[in-house]
Amino acid sequence: QVQLVESGGNLVQPGGSLRLACAGSGARLAFLNMRWYRQAPGKERELVASISFGDVTNYSDSVKGRFTISRDNAKNTMYLEMTNLKPEDTAVYYCNIPRPNNSDVWGQGTQVTVSA
Question: How many angstroms separate the CA atoms of 100 and 93, rounded?
């Protein structure tokens, strides 16, 4: 059974940085397409960044140039490096393995709060 566990969320001031981690078990993350989503209070879940099996990356316009998605295959972990954080980045961040037939794998989420 594949499991994902996020960590690294915290309270940070505007302009600050954080690195989120998504540790996997039960599968080799290096061979999977993976995503980071976020959900702010009262809003729908938003796709933030993705990394393909071939390590092609994509970002939403709202985070492009500030966030970087990556993987450490030796640690079986995916990361989201976030810089120049803004209050509107406040959300619960989730890592995800997309699968067909509504069988996606999700982590439990990690809270990021950007506030002075």
Answer: 22
